[in-house]
Write a structure and sequence with these properties.
The protein is α+β, with helices and mostly antiparallel strands. 22% of the residues lie in helices and 34% in strands.
Length: 170
């Protein structure tokens, strides 16, 4: 995994996984619940699951153990197997931002590097739209931010590949 330092209002993180492009996109979008850390939570209760509605105009939201929900992103583009764009509807104070003009965008691109290899490039852009305090979002480019999401994605891919390999050996 790599990150690219930027002097702009965008963050860049990428990871390479050893699966074909279409499979990488499917794993990321269909298993997003396994990728998003439960501790990244704006609800007052623990998260039971995270839902990524796989369509343009859909939402990304957490469901609490008590049934409460927190919608923290909108699906702006859903273009299998190459691209997913979601809004980042979270303010620098870590609250839901209801004004779409004060939100940023997260674009995830899936790029073929070979028949069984895909690079996943994540760009979180237009951070300055959040207004005062947006610079704090630069921390999302490190450790427990977007690199954690992509590490968890890679772990899901590796687990699934291992399960397929074990089934083939049986």
């Amino acid at each position: 995994m790599s990150t690219t330092p930027q002097d702009s209002t965008a963050l860049h993180v990428d990871v390479t996984v050893e699966i074909p492009l279409d499979h990488a996109f499917a794993v990321f979008t269909e298993r997003f619940d396994e990728i998003k850390p439960r501790e990244h939570n704006l609800l007052d209760v623990p998260i039971e699951r995270t839902v990524l509605e796989r369509r343009e105009g859909g939402s990304v939201y957490d469901v609490g153990v008590d049934g409460s929900t927190c919608t923290w992103a909108r699906v702006l583009a859903y273009e299998p197997p190459h691209r997913l764009v979601i809004s980042w509807d979270i303010s620098p104070q870590w609250r839901i931002e209801p004004d779409p003009s004060r939100t940023s965008e997260v674009e995830i691109r899936f790029v073929t590097e070979g028949p069984e290899r895909t690079r996943v490039r994540l760009e979180h852009r237009n951070l300055d739209r959040h207004g005062q305090g947006w610079e704090g979002f630069r921390d999302l480019e490190t450790g427990s931010g977007w690199p954690l999401y992509l590490d968890r994605f890679r772990a899901v891919v590796e687990r699934l590949v291992g399960e397929v390999s074990a089934a083939e050996r049986s």
